[in-house]
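#struct-help
A.M.: can someone run this one for me? Single chain, 162 residues.
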Amino acid sequence: MPEELSDSEKYPADGSERPALVKKYGHSSWYDWAVNNWGTKWELCEFFGVERIELKEQNEGESTIEFGFDSAWAPPINALAHWLEQNEECQATLSYWEGGCDFMGIWDNFDDNEFSPSDYKSDDPFWKSGAGKKLDEDFGLVDSLIDWESQQEEEQKEEESA
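D.P.: on it. Structure tokens below:
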């Protein structure tokens, strides 16, 4: 992020006092610049809860790097797409999940497949193969659904007995 935009306290976010920054960067606030360039409001944060950063050798001259990170509210698809455009010899696959906003998906080299976790129960065949299996492996979603379903059943029983 441009240093000039990172301090939004000194200037109004509407750009009224920063037309030079709008001309230079297309935005007068850190927030607008970040959402436009990264697809999310924060840069990549620490690897909260992720216990793997792995380099896998594929074929001669090919490698895969697998890692995880936290970002705010949305996957940084714009940042990844920009990076891939600058590194045409590379490919990228991104798994993401935002439980509070009810979306998850797999972005694979500019192809985004998004799903809503609330559309599936823990025993749904979706979790057994393909995108569902990958998302469950990465984020433990089936276990979370089992816990939530159990809580819902307990609450229902309590309401019925009251």
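A.M.: thanks! The two ends are 56 Å apart (CA to CA).
D.P.: also worth noting: The mean pLDDT is 80.
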